[in-house]
């Protein structure tokens, strides 16, 4: 494996930063190559709060769920076993608490689209891998999805998400040892902001706290404080 011997004058981060991520990337890439002969797909659908009327997916969330439905049909028709994970515990936004978890809202929507609940996961995996701390940010979503992917007999991991989230969620996934195939569902009105993402969220994930799973994680605790009812 070849690493940069010196830092380019215009590069951000140290040579050690680059080496860390090169090593992580190679580990994740190798793991996915080893799994690639397994005809099974796990589709993670990035949840989005707040819910409409506290119980229905908003526009961004709906677009992702519909794309997940298309991918489910595509891969099922190709003869693969497919399961879907819709993350997200019950959220609070600007003082208003949703009536159901993001997972439950997404699962109900997919059921109404004709997908069997037997292959859809949500709160079951949230609790299995995060317990009482719940799933309250993208790193939590990636942690649960990658954990279930590694524990299960899957060959491919699809992540359906906002185009704004691609780099940050991929950073988290690489940290957890997997490489997703990303499918984006763009919308005109987005919850996430490109500038915040570029200047705050991505650098934090890349250089400060790649997994956000520690009980001392500053960003994770901030988001949990804002979003947990």
Task: Please characterize this protein's 3D structure.
By secondary structure, the chain is of the alpha/beta class. 47% of the residues lie in helices and 12% in strands. It has helices spanning 15-35, 59-77, 102-112, 123-130, 138-151, 166-175, 194-208, 218-227, and strands spanning 40-45, 81-85, 92-93, 96-97, 120-121, 156-161, 181-184. The strands form two sheets. The chain has a five-stranded parallel beta sheet, sandwiched between helices. Helix 5 (138-151) packs across helix 6. The mean pLDDT is 95.
Helix/strand structural class: alpha/beta
Q: Distance N terminus to C terminus?
A: 46 Å
Low-confidence stretches: none
Within the largest sheet, what's the order of strands?
5-2-1-6-7
Number of helices: 8
**Percentage of residues in DSSP E strands:** 5-15%
What is the count of β-strands?
7
Using the CA coordinates, give the radius of gyration: 18 Å
- Mean pLDDT comes to 95
- Biggest β-sheet description: 5 strands, parallel
Question: Percentage of helical residues?
Answer: 40-55%
